[in-house]
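Ticket reopened. Same input as before:
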Amino acid sequence: MNALRRHRALTRIWASDPGWKGWFTSVNHTDLGRMFLTVATFFFVVGGLLAMLIRAQLATPRSAFLGPDHYNQIFTMHGTIMMFLFAIPFFEGLAVYLLPKLLGTRDLAFPRLTAYGFWCYVFGGGMMIFALLAGLAPDSGWFMYPPLSSTLGAPGINPDFWLIGITFVEISAIAAAVEITVTVLRYRAPGMKLSQMPIFAWYALVTAVMILTGFPPLILGSILLELERAFGLPFFQVAQGGDALLWQHLFWLFGHPEVYIIFLPAAGAISTILPVMARTRLMGYGWIVAAAVSLAVLSFGLWVHHMFTTGIPHMGLAFFSAASTLVAVPTAVQIFAWIGTIAKGRPQLHLPMLWLLAFFATFVIGGLTGVMVAIVPFDWQAHDTYFIVAHLHYVLVGGFVFPMLAALYYWMPHFTGRRTYFKLGPTAFWLVFCGFHGTFLLLHWAGLMGMRRRIDTFDLGQGWELINLIASVSSFVMAIGFALVLVDVAINALVAIRGSRDPWGAGTLEWAMTTPPPAYNFASLPQIGSRDPLYDTPDLPAQLARGEGYLGDPSRNRRETLTIDIASARPRYIVVFPGNTALPVVMSAVTGLFFLGMLLKAYWLVPISALGVIACALHWVWSLGRSRPEGPLPAGRGLSLGTAAEASDPPGWWGSLFLLLADGTFFGSLLFGYAFLWTVAPNWPPASYAEPGFPGALLVLGGAGLTVIGARLSLTVAALGLGLMMAAGVILLTEVPDSVAHAYDATVWVLVGYGLLHQAVCLLMTALVAARQQAGHAPATLYGARRVLRLWCSYTVLTSLVIAAAAGLPGALS
Amino acid sequence: MTSILRIALPLTLWLAGFSAIYGLHGLLCSSRWAVAGDDLPGRGLLIAAAAVVLVLQVALIGVLRSSIWSASDPVIRHISLGLGVVALVSSVWTLMPVLTVSHCL
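Engineering reply: fixed in the latest deploy. New output:
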C-alpha cells in the first residue's frame, strides 16, 4: 500500500463526521483540542471585557459608571472566568491537541472522555455566562469566602451559580487530568523511555497529577458550602460547631497549587519552544524535570500563606513563610536553565521568542514580589491591597498568558498548515506588553499607598488618582493589543499561504506529520531512541508515511494504537478506540440537568438525571472491549500483540487508578476538615456522638471482608458484602438523625453519604460484570474488568472502614 | 511505575511530614490539648516529630542510592536522588521553626 492510499484509508477510519454533526460526535483529540482552545479563547475575551469594565470604573475617583452590586459581580466573574474557564481549559486544550502528537501516538487514552470533559466545560461555562447576563452572577469574590458567600451574606442564587457551575466545569479538568496521566505513562511511542519524553510531556504529567490532587479540596469545599446553603448543614457556622476558616483552608489547598497548575504548562511550552528559537537543545533536562516536580509538590505546602492575617500562631506562620520562600528555588532553577539555553544557542527573534522575552521580564518581577509577600510582616501590610492584585497579574499574565501566546504563534503553522504571513503580530505584542506594564506596574504602589482590592470606587485626595488613570488607559491599550492578536491569528489561519511541514526546524514528533495534522496523526507509529527524534532521524516523517512503523496497515479497518510498558517503553498491547459518537455530549447534557436541578432546587430532577447519567455510563462501558478474544495480532515491524480487551491492566484500570487518586484526595480533604473542626472550631464537642455499637461494627467489618473476598472469587458474595456495608451506613445515620444540629452530625452525614455512593458504584460495577458473564463474554475478555472491579472494591472497603472509625470512635471512646 | 514512585516519593514524604507537623502544632495549640493537661511536652513532641521526618528523609536517600531499589534508567536515578536531597533540605528549612519560634503565641 502506498502512502496516499494509506492516508485515505486511515482518514476514512479516524476522521470526525463531516459538517456540523461532527462538532457533537467527534472524539478526535485534534478536533476537540481546537474546540477547547476556541472556547477558552472566547472566555478569555469575556473575562477581558469584564476587566475593561473594572478599569473604566476605577479610572477616576467617585465614578458612577458601575454601582457596587454590578461591580461585585463583574470582578468576581472576571477572576472566576480567567482562572476556571480560561487558564485551565486552555492548558487542557493545548495538551489535548498536542500530547498524542508529541508522544507519537494517535489519540489520548480515553477519546470519549475527552469529549465528555469538553461538553461539561461548555455547559458549565454556559451556566456561568447565563448568570452574568441575567444579573445573577456570583458576587462574593472568586475565593467565595463565607460568611460573605453563605446565606447570611448572600441569600440569593448568585453564589449557587459559582458553587454548582464551577464544580460542573471541574469534571472537565479531572477528566482531562486522568487521560493526560494515562496517556503520558502508557501511550508513548515504543522506545520512548521516561527520560526521552519531550519536556512538555513531563510538565503535562506533573500538571495533571496536580489537578488530580489539587482540585478535590475545592470540589469538597463547594459541595459543603452548597450543602450548607441548600440544606443548612452547618460546616461554616460557628454557633453550630462549624468554622468559616475551614473554607479558606479547603479553598487554598486548591488555590495555591492552582497557580502552579497554570504556570507549569506554560513552563512546558517555554522549555519546548525556547531551544528551537535558540537553535540548540534544552540545557539541564534532568534539572528541569526535578525542578518541575519540586515546584509541584512544594506548592501543596504553601496554602496557609494566603491566610497569614487570620490569627495563626507564630510557628504556623513561620512554617509557611519558610515553605513559601523555598518555592522560589526550583522556579529559579528553571529560569537559569532557560537563560543557559539561550546563552548556549544562537537565538532568533521570531515572534514566539519575543513573547518568551516578555515572559522573562514580567514573570521574574511577579516571582520576586511573591517572595516579598512570603515574608509575614510585609504580607500583613500588603494583604488584600492592590499590591497583591499587581503581583498576581504579573505571575499569571507573565507566567501563563505570554508563554501561551508564544505557544500560539509557535504552533499556529501546525494548527493551520499555513505560514505566518501577515505581520500584525509584532504590533500587537508591543501594545500588549507596554499596556500590561502600564496597567499593573504602578498598581504595586497604589497597593502600598493603601488602596484595598475589590473597592468599587475611591475618594479624591488619596493619592491614587493618577496611578488609576494611567492603569485604566494602559489597560485599554493592552486590550487593543489582544484584539490585534485575535485578528492576526484569524487572518493568518484563513488566508495566509501554505507552509512547510516543520517551519521552525524543531526536533519533536508533532512536526513529523503533514500540517494541518491528519485525523490519525501518524500513518504508522515510530520507534523512538532519543529526545529529539527529528534531529537524529531526519527521514522519520517519510518512513512513517510509508508505513514502516507500527500499525501501518489499516486493513483491520478500526481505530488502533499501541500502549507501552512505563519504564522500558516496550510495546504491550493494541488498543482499539471507539468511533464517533454523540454519547459524550448527551451524557454531559444529562449531567448538566443534575447540576441544574441542584441549582434551581428542582430536586425531583436530581434523581431522574442521576439515573440518566447511570444509563449513559452503562451504555458507555457496555460497548467497551469484545466478547471473544482475538489473540495476538500483527502490529508491524514483525511484532504480534494482544488487544487491551484481553489485558490484565487495560487502560480502564489505569484510568481508575488515577481517578481514585483524585477520589482519595477528596476523601483525605474531608477527613482534614473533620479534624480541623474537631481541633480548632469553637462549640465542640457536640451534644452527643453517634454510638452505632456492636451490630454496626459487625455489619461493616463483615461487609468489608465479604466484599474483599467476593471481588476475587464470587460476584454474589461481593454484592452481599457491599449490601452489608450499606446497611451499616444507614444504621449510623439513624444515630445522628438531625444533620443540621451540629457540624459533627453534618460531617457524619457527608462521610456516610460518601461511603454509600461508593458502595452503590461498586454494586453497579458488580452487576455490569455479572451481566457480561451472562452475555457470554469469555473469561479472557473479562479479566481486565474484574481487576477494575477489584480495585474499586478495595478502595471502597478501605474508605468505609475509615468512615466507620471516624464517625463511630468518638462515641465509643467518650 | 517504580520510576514514577522514585520521583514522587521524596517530596511527597516532605509534604506528609510537613503537613503532619503543622497538624500536630494545631492540636498542641488547641483547647483540646489544654484540657488534656498543661504539663504535656508540646515543643518536645514537635521536635521529636521533626527529627523522625529528617531520619526518614535520610533513610529514603539511602534506599534510593542502594541496590535494593535500583532504577533501570540512569537519568531517573539521578533525578530521584536529586529530589531526595531537595526533600531533605526542604525538611530542614521548613521545620526549623520547631526549634526557633514560640509555638502557640
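The mean pLDDT of chain A is 94. Chain A touches chain B through 35 residues (CB under 8 Å). Please confirm and we'll close it.
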